[in-house]
Amino acid sequence: MAQNAAVAAVRFVALDLVGDALAFPVWWYTAGFLKFLGWLGMQARAQWHTIGLGVWLKNLFVPMFGQTDIWGRIISFFMRLGQIIVRGVWYLATLVLIVVAAVVWVAFPPALVALLVFQFAALASPPR
C-alpha cells in the first residue's frame, strides 16, 4: 500500500508539473501580462504623483510667495516652467522605461527558447 501511495504521489506531482509547464505560456501572455500591465500603470500613476507634475501645471500662472507685482509673476512663471520641463522629461523617461518593461515581458519567453535552442545546438555540434 505504501508503494502505491508513493507511486500515486510521484504521478500526481509529475502531472502537476507537466500541466503547469503547458499552462505557463498561456498565463504569461494573458492573465500574467494583464496583471503586469496593471502594475506598470500603477507605477506610472505613482510616479506622476511623486513628481507632482499636475500641481506644477495647475499653478503655472500663480505667483510664488504671494509676489503679485510684475517681476514676481515673471520670475514665478519661468521658475515653474523650468520645473515643469525638467519634471516632464523625467516622467517621459519613466514612461519609456515602462514601455520597455512591457516589451521585455512579451519578448522574454521566445528569446529564452531561442537562446536555449542555440546552446543545445552548440553542444550537439562537434568542436572545431
Q: Can you offer a commentary on this structure?
A:
By secondary structure, the chain is mainly α. It has one domain (26-124). Helices cover 86% and strands 0% of the residues. The chain is built from four helices and no strands. The chain has helices at residues 2-29, 31-51, 53-58, 70-124. The termini are far apart.
Helix content: over 70%
Q: Domains counted in the coordinates: how many? A: 1
pLDDT < 50 stretches? none
Summing up helix and strand content along with how strands pair, one would put the structural category as mainly alpha
Descriptive terms for the model:
128 residues, mainly alpha, 4 helices, 86% helix
Task: Give a brief description.
The protein is mainly α and 128 residues long. The protein contains four helices and no strands.
Layout: helices, strands, pairs:
Elements: H1 2-29, H2 31-51, H3 53-58, H4 70-124
Helix pairs in contact: 1-2, 2-4
